[in-house]
Design goal:
This protein is α+β, with helices and mostly antiparallel strands and 504 residues long. The chain has helices spanning 21-27, 35-48, 78-85, 107-113, 136-142, 185-206, 208-213, 270-277, 282-285, 326-329, 342-367, 397-404, 408-423, 427-437, 448-464, 469-477, 486-503; strands at residues 7-9, 12-14, 53-59, 66-71, 118-125, 128-135, 148-150, 166-172, 219-222, 225-226, 241-242, 246-250, 253-261, 287-292, 295-301, 315-321, 379-384, 387-392. It has an 8-stranded mixed sheet. A hairpin with a 2-residue loop joins strand 12 and strand 13. The chain starts with 6 loop residues before the first strand and ends with a helix.
Length: 504
């Protein structure tokens, strides 16, 4: 209880409203961090301290698992360490260096308390090693804003791994990270390891520009295994598309935009495609990627400016903002969300419209042959009364030749069968599958004899249109099912072309 209920200060009567340590420090635990965002907030501090190597360490065995984040940054002396351990050590309105990833002076504490009850920080600078610990159980007992300082850190976990300068953050008493599992060391260990493993992709994504673009690059590791950066724009793939940068100068700084279109999934490996899309897939990962000081804040959202659709799922727009615009963007404590300022909304809307056209063309280029008469599509695309209808084309050489060899009654029945195939297309199921993972929707492998029958039907027609043998082969190769099964069908196509070319 505060000592003074009221006091006189000049012409004012005031009361002491110093917060209760035990209550407020518990409130800091529930800001909304996940394991991955908490780890990223600690890494922010390491990058701000100039670290080029950051190691995430996990000792989940036994009754008291622990997590460590070790860096080779500039380190702290005792005074600096005590200040860093103070909640609210920096005013969010203070002017920061452009490379400072902090904002509220809460990240180290609130991120750590969201996962554990004991936070220990060990730091080395100018040959001196110091340490301090927040113990939330002790704060609950004393109701005081007091930390324990350590002058001998030799017995602290991982302290021996500190280099000439650097800092080690240790989380113990992992009550939040342990999933509430008690009296079962094996299950608790499995759960902690799983949570750290699931955080890996987030870290690779959030800090990918420091890992890719810096010289020397930032090196991040997890239990001794170096992590690879995850670039959401696919810049490593030659088939990606990139537009020139666009700038918007405002009172508090300059916003920089750059638009990207991912390569089509058939132009890169399946593993790379899935890595780009992540666990939620490409439909959920399209949109704006907002960076503050090159650190990712928002990953994949149209921020209310567009809908997530299948035809725009290749769209990515990188937005770079300086830390001088935190208030305008309403950057939160976790640095995991922001709000779109009105001043940039119109510019971003125009970018969305322009980039969505590029993404649509990427898909439509692959689908345009379906309506190209020179390719003799088996299916017709018909626009009727504002709707789009797909149906087999009875005039296709394969179908018309087959029908011509039937008796009149059978020809009528065959025409009914073709119409029935079109009217029973499973549109709802196709729509659901394409809305989820379009790249998983594919055709069945081609039967050799069926392919031979189709080639024998269309190749003579192409010769009749005046194409030479080379052009006929090129056209056939673009037609399904030959396009996706060329290695299996090329020889039979060549033989039929040779046969008909000799008869010309």
């Amino acid at each position: 209880m505060p000592d003074k209920i009221s006091a006189t200060s000049g012409n004012r009567t005031v009361a002491d409203a110093t917060p209760y340590a035990a209550s407020l420090i518990q409130s800091l635990r529930d800001i909304g961090y996940s394991c991955e965002t908490a780890l990223a907030d600690i890494i922010d501090n390491s990058i701000t301290a100039g670290a080029r190597k950051i190691a995430i360490l996990c000792d989940a065995n036994g009754a008291d698992p622990a997590i460590g984040i070790l860096d080779d940054g500039q380190g702290m002396d005792l005074g600096e360490l005590v200040e860093a351990m103070r909640p609210g050590s920096r005013n969010p309105l203070d002017v920061r260096d452009s490379g400072d990833l902090g904002r509220f002076g809460l990240g180290l504490k609130s991120a750590s308390f969201s996962q554990c009850k004991k936070l220990t920080v060990v730091s080395r600078k100018n040959g001196q090693t110091v340490g301090a610990t927040w113990d939330l159980d002790e704060v609950g007992r004393s109701n005081r804003w007091e930390i324990e300082t350590h002058h001998d850190v030799a017995n602290l976990l991982w302290a021996d791994r500190l280099e000439n300068t650097g800092t080690l953050v240790i989380w113990r008493s992992l009550d939040r990270l342990s999933g509430g599992i008690e009296n079962d060391d094996r299950r608790r260990s499995e759960h902690v390891n799983r949570m750290i493993a699931e955080a890996e992709r987030h870290i690779r994504l959030v800090f990918h520009r420091f890992m890719e673009d810096d010289r020397p690059p930032l090196r991040l590791s997890l239990n001794g295994r170096e992590l690879e950066p995850l670039d959401p724009f696919g810049r490593a793939f030659p088939s990606h598309q990139c537009e020139p940068r666009d700038e918007l100068k405002l009172g508090r700084g300059t916003v920089i935009f750059q638009s990207f279109t991912l390569p089509h999934h058939k132009s890169i490996s399946k593993a790379d495609w899935e890595d780009l899309g992540g666990p939620d897939g490409h439909l959920k990962s399209q949109g704006f990627y907002v960076y503050r000081g090159r650190r990712l804040i928002i990953a994949g959202s149209w921020l209310g400016l567009a809908r997530q659709t299948e035809l725009t799922k290749l769209c990515r727009i990188r937005v770079d903002i300086p830390n001088t615009m935190d208030a305008d963007w309403k950057i939160d404590v976790k640095k995991a969300s922001a709000q779109l300022p009105p001043a940039v909304r119109e510019r971003m809307r125009l970018l969305v419209e322009r980039l969505s056209l590029t993404s649509r063309r990427t898909y439509q280029r692959r689908g345009q042959r379906l309506v190209d008469e020179t390719s003799m599509p088996l299916w017709q695309r018909v626009q009727k009364d504002g709707t789009i209808i797909y149906r087999p084309d009875p005039a296709h050489p394969l179908l018309s030749d087959f029908s011509a060899n039937l008796a009149p009654q059978q020809q009528a029945e065959f025409a009914n069968l073709i119409g029935l195939l079109g009217s029973t297309m499973p549109v709802a199921a196709l729509h659901a599958d394409f809305s989820g993972s379009a790249e998983k929707v594919t055709t069945e492998g081609v039967d050799t004899e069926a392919a031979r029958q189709m080639a024998a039907a269309i190749i003579p027609r192409l010769f009749e249109q005046g194409h030479d043998a080379a052009r006929v082969e090129t056209l056939v190769r673009q037609i399904d099912p030959f396009r996706d099964n060329w290695s299996e069908t090329s020889s039979l196509v060549a033989n039929i072309i040779k046969e008909h070319a000799g008869n010309e």
